[in-house]
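User: Okay, second chain of the day. Same drill as before: sequence in, structure tokens out.
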Amino acid sequence: MQIITLGASGGLEPQQGTSAFHLPPHTLIDAGTGVQRLSNAELMSVHSVLLTHAHLDHIASLPLLIDMQFDALAEQERSLNVYALPEVLETLKRHIFNEHIWPDFTQLPSADSPCSNLFLSPCGRSLRYPEKPTYRYK
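Assistant: Same drill. Structure tokens below.
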């Protein structure tokens, strides 16, 4: 398994990005500003994001990543899957994907065929990746 560190800083220091790790070709662990080091093709190939927690330095690029992929996801009728603990997903829904800060991509283009899914990854349980877990967060 290859893991590429895209960013591991807690701030905007020159030549560094905030927390993001790429597991090529389709997975990110965290989605901080380090994600911007990926090419457009690499960004478009991301299918899954595993979030460790909801601090801004770990999620800053997530809304923009989903937005960038939106047309392709809708056209292909697939989703960008986000995996995290329940409290992380609740924070994202309440404070980011709330139609005030950013669109709720779990409802777009439709609730039946969203371009983003949020999946619970309960503490202590194994995530069989790339299978979709049964714990979908609404």
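Strands lie at 4-7, 20-23, 27-31, 48-50, 80-84, 116-120, 136-137.

User: Thanks, on to the next one.
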